[in-house]
Fold:
Amino acid sequence: MRLVLVGPPGAGKGTQAQFIASHLAVPGISTGDIFRANVTQKTPLGLEAKRYMDAGDLVPDEVTINMVRDRLAESDAVDGFLLDGFPRTVPQAVALDKLLVDLGFSLDLVLELVVDDDEVIRRLSGRRMCRSCGRIWHVEFEPTVKPGVCDNCQGELFQRDDDNPTTIANRLREYAEKTAPLVDFYGAQGKLVGIDATGPVEDITNRAIDALRSYGG
Structure:
């Protein structure tokens, strides 16, 4: 199967992408991984992307799409893939459709992880990172024995800037403006399936897999 996973920040896309891709025996492909690989390997696209990033500018869609094209053309993606983090906008989705036609593929399904804003803020604002070992804890879901102190190394825990409620609210607004329209775009194609992304990770995975089974996955 060829899938796209969408959902707001804090919906658990990275975690679910890993489990779903493993279940389907297809590569889970994130745009973050694609960018890092191209930059690290100093590919022509990686060098071009780095120029924009070093200047503090957004990498143009054309560069991102060409990176995705190269990755989907690799042998392990011939029989299927799961894309996480791309497309982020309707223009990118249109470009992806064209890219897949050029490769002789088509998208089978888009899984939307559905979670409300209050739950996202609850999940992300409760995260705490250890300054020493980098381990991430959660004040509600995975608290340390001693508040503010890492159980692993006794390092100090802190809240990252992008996990404060104000920043999270801004990220959610950006998602609503730029990425949420993908729901209507793929819904109009009859390819969208919504998954309740609340509750234990395993329950969410099972819901996603049950949905895929109904579509032959």
In short: Residues 31 and 86 are 6 Å apart (CA to CA). The mean pLDDT is 92. The longest helix spans residues 90-103.
